[in-house]
């Protein structure tokens, strides 16, 4: 045993560490109590609004019809809230209601109120900014400001408090000679062992810098409350962090089955048992996101097919960070060029991992650095075949973003991905559209991951029904939808804006139909800007958004349509974002649009702006025409209506009646239904997978022929000629 002086020094240091740990835990508890208190006020308000809409007759459900509800209705008690706000004595004064009956009625209203509070949705309205929500944001601001480091600090504090709280009493006899004598032989041995273990705890704490971590976290928690302006501004700047905390406090996480993508129980159980190491993360995960990252770790070679806006990128980063903490060194991300910049940003801001850009003139030097140092290499799918990775280097995980781009095994990009898949330890495909036109394309993605499973899927025959299809691919496929897991997401208001062709529109349209020119038919509504019905409605929508300070993004497949829109608007517009813009320039345009003060308009080709960019600054989306692929529109809308959106999103689709627009919607409805059945939720699907085997060319030909027959026009205006 060390000398009494040495023992006292050790115990003093341990006591100070224990006090710091307990102090941080107390500060954290107070901060969380403030949030819980503010949240209860908001929930009570929301519950009261719900109760005001529940008829008093619903009390029968709680009282099993034993009480006289009719008397309440005759006395003017119309809702459950009316009964709750009344006193039992006031209810007792009603004819035919006893004291006991009045108490039971009031208790029943209270029971419904408590249930309403438990399920009351918590949404933050940036346009309302009421006092109750402001108090909640101010309370949350302290925890959001402390960041993920607070979670790590609290974990370290709990561990130190638990260990030292038990060891210090046992080690006290080591403080002095008299105490050692009085402790006896058994007490001295216990003190010696406890002191040795305390030394280990202190050594670990010094190596980890625990005292500094605890001190910094306490400073963050003890900062003065944020002002109203500061709290609201910070919420609009980083809403996901606030909503993540709200999900934790308010139990906003979705139904477990929905959060787990309705996987079979045996797979779900394995994933649930897998811990996720967040040492290298700088962001808190929602429950469903944590599950997605663990699914990738446990199942090793998978497709994460979450709907747009659910954070597939951060789930991939979380899986990589976990593997890094468990000894992985090299990771590779292959993505479209349009999102390469976004991937580099996300890795740098969401984790402490080193990111290397293997694209552009410096890619050779970056590759050498990545090979030497390890980290996350990010390259484009199209450049993957040129990447010369040493054979001895086996990536701990390969991530392929927008993986539906590699569904055709005959392409060079698909073959390059297949070769990388064979060489990587784990593979994670990210795609919100795993099946666009046929189930066979989905199988092509699975073939990259597990060729044996492809045979099993064929054997089960997807035509037998979607549930059989989902069961077959469950080991490699996880998909969640916004409506199932983003309980706080603002409303998405979708409006089909049907317009009548003007005379000039009609002339341009009939000429395009006669020529069999499908693309000209689709943009005929913009051929005469001065009389275009669609443009007139677009200008009205933009003017309405400008009046309320809302940002607008306008999508079209056609650059000339976007040019026409830009020339027609009263003010300047950002963009257009198009395929020929470099990824860096594309991101800069989006950043400038988001940073604009108040109202702004962004123009974007839907095939460029609908993939890989976060446009949640926009709360109004205008689609200039329907798209051949149903998923193209949903991807574009999801760029604005995604996790972190703080306002309701209005989606306006401009459509011309009795035109190519209407024919497209009719034909594509079947495709959308089958995609929903097989890839979204998969409850029913009796149609064969070939039902969605409709190419863009086939759709174009069918629509042209139908319109030529309807208008009795053929090529060059000759009746009856239905050829392209």
Automatic annotation (TrEMBL):
PANTHER family: SNF2/RAD54 HELICASE FAMILY. CDD domains: DEXHc_Snf, SF2_C_SNF. It comes from the Bacteria. This is Helicase SNF2. Residues 537-685 form the Helicase C-terminal domain. The keyword Hydrolase applies. It holds the Pfam family Helicase_C. InterPro entries: Helicase_ATP-bd, Helicase_C-like, P-loop_NTPase, SNF2-like_sf, SNF2/RAD54-like_C, SNF2_N.
């Amino acid at each position: 045993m060390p000398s009494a002086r040495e023992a006292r020094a050790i115990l003093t240091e341990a006591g100070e560490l224990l006090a710091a740990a307990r102090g941080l835990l107390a500060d954290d508890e107070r901060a969380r109590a403030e949030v819980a208190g503010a949240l209860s006020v908001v929930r009570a308000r929301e519950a009261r609004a719900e109760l005001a809409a529940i008829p008093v007759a619903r009390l029968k459900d709680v009282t099993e019809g034993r009480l006289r509800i009719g008397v309440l209705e005759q006395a003017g008690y119309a809702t459950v809230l009316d009964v709750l706000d009344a006193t039992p004595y006031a209810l007792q004064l009603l004819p035919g209601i006893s004291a006991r009956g009045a108490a039971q009625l009031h208790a029943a209203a209270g029971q419904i109120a408590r249930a309403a509070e438990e399920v009351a949705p918590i949404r933050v309205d940036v346009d309302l900014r009421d006092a109750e929500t402001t108090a909640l944001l101010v309370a949350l601001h302290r925890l959001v400001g402390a960041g993920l480091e607070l979670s790590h600090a609290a974990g370290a504090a709990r561990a130190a408090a638990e260990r030292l709280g038990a060891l210090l009493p046992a080690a006290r006899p080591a403080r002095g000679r008299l105490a050692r004598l009085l402790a006896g032989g058994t007490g001295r041995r216990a003190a010696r062992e406890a002191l040795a273990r305390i030394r280990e705890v202190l050594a670990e704490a010094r190596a980890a810098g625990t005292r500094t971590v605890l001190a910094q976290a306490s400073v963050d928690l003890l900062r003065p409350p944020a002002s109203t302006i500061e709290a609201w501004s910070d919420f609009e700047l980083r809403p996901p962090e606030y909503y993540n905390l709200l999900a934790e406090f308010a139990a906003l996480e979705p139904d477990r089955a929905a959060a787990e993508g309705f996987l079979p129980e045996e797979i779900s159980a394995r994933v649930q048992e897998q811990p996720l190491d967040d040492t290298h993360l700088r962001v808190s995960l929602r429950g469903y996101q944590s599950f997605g990252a663990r699914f990738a770790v446990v199942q090793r070679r998978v497709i994460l097919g979450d709907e747009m806006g659910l954070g597939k990128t951060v789930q991939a980063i979380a899986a990589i960070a976990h593997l890094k903490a468990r000894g992985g060194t090299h990771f590779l991300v292959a993505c479209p060029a349009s999102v390469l910049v976004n991937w580099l940003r996300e890795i740098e801001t969401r984790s402490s991992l080193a990111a290397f850009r293997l694209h552009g003139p410096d890619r050779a030097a970056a590759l050498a650095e990545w090979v030497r140092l390890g980290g996350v290499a990010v390259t484009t799918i199209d450049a993957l075949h040129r990447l010369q990775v040493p054979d001895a280097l086996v990536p701990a995980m390969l991530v392929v973003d927008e993986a539906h781009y590699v569904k055709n095994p005959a392409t060079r990009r698909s073959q390059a991905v297949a070769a990388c898949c064979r060489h990587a330890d784990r593979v994670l495909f990210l795609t919100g559209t795993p099946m666009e036109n046929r189930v066979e394309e989905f199988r092509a993605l699975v073939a990259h991951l597990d060729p044996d499973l492809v045979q099993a899927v064929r054997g089960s025959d997807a035509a037998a029904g979607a549930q059989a299809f989902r069961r077959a691919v469950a080991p490699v496929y996880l998909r969640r939808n916004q409506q199932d897991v983003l309980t706080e997401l603002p409303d998405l208001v979708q409006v089909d804006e049907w317009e009548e062709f003007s005379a000039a529109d009609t002339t341009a349209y009939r000429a395009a139909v006669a020529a069999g020119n499908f693309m000209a038919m689709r943009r005929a509504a913009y051929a005469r800007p001065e009389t275009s019905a669609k443009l007139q409605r677009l200008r009205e929508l933009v003017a309405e958004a400008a009046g309320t300070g809302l940002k607008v993004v306008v999508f079209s497949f056609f650059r000339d349509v976007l040019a026409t829109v830009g020339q027609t608007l009263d003010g300047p517009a950002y963009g257009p974002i198009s395929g020929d813009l470099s990824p860096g320039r594309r991101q800069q345009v989006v950043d400038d649009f988001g940073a604009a003060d108040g109202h702004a308009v962004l123009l974007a080709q839907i095939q460029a702006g609908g993939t890989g960019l976060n446009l949640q600054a926009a709360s109004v989306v205008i689609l200039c025409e329907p798209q051949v692929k149903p998923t193209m529109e949903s991807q574009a809308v999801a760029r604005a209506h995604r996790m972190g959106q703080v306002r309701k999103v209005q989606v306006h689709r401009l459509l011309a009646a009795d035109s190519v627009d209407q024919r497209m919607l009719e034909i594509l409805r079947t495709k959308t239904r089958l995609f929903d059945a097989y890839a979204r939720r998969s409850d029913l699907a009796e149609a064969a997978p070939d039902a969605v085997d409709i190419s863009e060319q086939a759709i174009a030909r069918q629509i042209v022929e139908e319109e030529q027959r309807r208008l009795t026009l053929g090529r060059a205006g000759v009746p009856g000629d239905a050829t392209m």
